[in-house]
Specification:
Number of strands: 5
Order of helices and strands: EHEEHEHEHHHHH
Distance between the termini: 41 Å
CATH superfamily of the largest domain: Response regulator
């Protein structure tokens, strides 16, 4: 059974985009639907946009496209006036098209632009995941150290206890560790007794003080 993919929505911004009317049918046959947009329309409604140089005549539009999360190509790059302050926008754009591109150029740049955007987003997500894991490991290490100090238990014993309470409370071990650090900081900043004196048994303290996952 052949799977039919939805067409790619291409937003067209700027007066230069009017020339694309001529190849709209060919682009539609290739799987791209053009949406000739006004300045007030949202670029995030499209899978990718083609933005003419006329859009950057106003500083507000430069800021707008610099901050957009959506991929876009810049059209009319060969007519760029000297001294235009668009370096940040150029760095974000996923491709560039001449003022009078051929159908082949448009198709190639759309495909490459979407591929580049996907790769860039995947790379950012991988970096974010690595940073999250590093931070989680840091918090878990801090919680283990606090409990080792207060209860005089080995690192393995404390870590196994955290895994058990994480499973029992249906929470991630990093979330449990965050709650332990928060309770420890609260104790050290007030006149309350520290966590060692609240219970002589680590498992009992964890059971009594770590909250269950919220439904």
């Amino acid at each position: 059974m052949e799977i039919t993919r939805p067409p790619v929505r291409v937003g067209i911004f700027g007066s230069e985009g009017l020339a694309l009317h001529e190849c709209a049918n060919e682009l539609h046959q290739a799987g791209y639907v053009l949406n000739f947009s006004s300045a007030s329309q949202d670029e995030t409604d499209n899978d990718i946009s083609i933005v003419g140089m006329s859009e950057f005549a106003h500083a507000g539009n430069i800021t707008r496209w610099k901050n957009t999360p959506s991929p876009f190509l810049i059209s009319g790059i060969d007519s760029l006036p000297h001294g235009t302050a668009m370096s940040e926008v150029f760095n974000i754009a996923v491709g560039y098209i001449r003022s009078a591109p051929t159908l082949t150029e448009i198709l190639l740049n759309l495909r490459l632009g979407l591929h580049w955007h996907h790769e860039r987003r995947s790379h950012s997500e991988r970096i974010s995941n690595i940073e999250t894991k590093i931070e989680n490991n840091r918090i878990i290490g801090m919680a283990v150290g606090v409990l080792m100090t207060h209860y005089g238990k080995s690192e393995q014993y404390v870590f196994d206890s955290l895994k058990t309470i994480s499973r029992n409370k249906q929470r991630r071990i990093s979330s449990v560790a965050n709650e332990i650090i928060a309770k420890h900081n609260e104790d050290t900043q007030t006149d309350k007794p520290d966590i060692r004196l609240k219970s002589s048994d680590l498992h009992a303290w964890l059971t009594d003080n770590i909250t269950m996952k919220k439904r």
